[in-house]
Amino acid sequence: MLIGIPLDKQRNDTCKPKECAAEMSAYLNTVAVKRCKLSFSKVFSYFAPRLRSYALKQMGNEALAMELVQDTMSNVWQKAHLFNAEKGSPSTWIFTIARNIRFDMLRKLQNRKEDVCSDDLWPILCEQTADTKTAPLDEQITLEQVGHYFEELPLKQKKVIEAIYIDGKSQQEVADELEIPLGTVKSRTRLALQRLKDMLREHD
Amino acid sequence: MIKFHPTDTDLVGFVEGSLVPAKSLLISAHLDLCDECAEKATAFTENLALQAIKPSSRKNYLDSSLVNMCESIMELPAATQHINADGFVKQTLSVDGRDFILPEALSRFSNRIGEWSHLLGKLWQAPVEIGGGHLAQFIYMEKDGGVPEHTHKGSELTLVIDGKFADGNEEYDSGDFISLDSTHTHTPVAVGDEGCLVFSIIDQPLYFTTGWARLINPLSHLYFRANS
What Gene3D superfamilies does the record tag this protein with (chain B) (predicted)? Predict the structure, then answer.
């Protein structure tokens, strides 16, 4: 249960887009600055059910729709500091997050071979590319080098990377197989890739 | 002056996320160069957001699964990186003794650009690893250099990064977005005082990339044969 936080279960909140945008912007800022759970629950109460309707139409499947809502709202909670009211309304920001996640989900589902992910097209949540200190990787990295560094990864990360990049499995498949949450697979992948990049850079 | 733009239908498809990735990438790069289309795309995104997340919707309530979801999300830690989202550095691409600034969308692919190879005459090519059976590449035409006359089996999307070229039908300038298919035959030649750098994507089969190449850099070079 949420401790001391009333979720507006029956709230049939319809408000004018502009007022709503101002209200939601304020909540998002409080989430960013104070990690305020009450503010997040307000944002969640407004957006999650609406996102679910949208996601159901888009994905045509309750489980996938819920995954889309979960991933979107997790990003809102974790990256509220990237929201900038000057660049657009909360609705637009959250819609673009959902659009990106949907794009990547469909990419996996349809087994598209392009190495173009949503961050490449719409880097709204892209913190890595925003890192001014990140130099491009040396272009002469050999397969042997990568393989060598790969061996140095922690076992858990290695398993995940192997399954995704060598066996070509989806993150969901890996999660099911290893019986760990999807979020864990995602974070292990991210950490492993970051670690590989760091190692490649250090040994340059 | 940019004269050639994606259609509105393409722009809507792009912001919706329904266009194929290769075309989306080209449009994303075009938007970095074209304020007019970038403004349109912003407006289309706002419209789509309103349609997707309807403010007036009356049957929105939290059921127990959403309440549980909300609780579990708030257990997550905040993202630790706080990096200025505007601090992105544009990458450059060097050829012919010049450094070209890449549009942001293509800068993100700068670690997937292969070596320049000399094709013929005054024509240079550097592959970009995007996978999916697409041949993505930078093409550099030295001053007065060009590509022999050719047509396309599928579609050819081109973005002019820097310089001008003419192809017997039109003259294109920096920022122009060009979409051609099998009905077009053309002979691109750089015009003006300098060479011309373009980025193009052709949907013809390629070697599949290995997992490792996806992970890091272009480990395998992709070769392109000009249809002379």
Answer: Anti-sigma factor, zinc-finger domain (1.10.10.1320), Jelly Rolls (2.60.120.10)
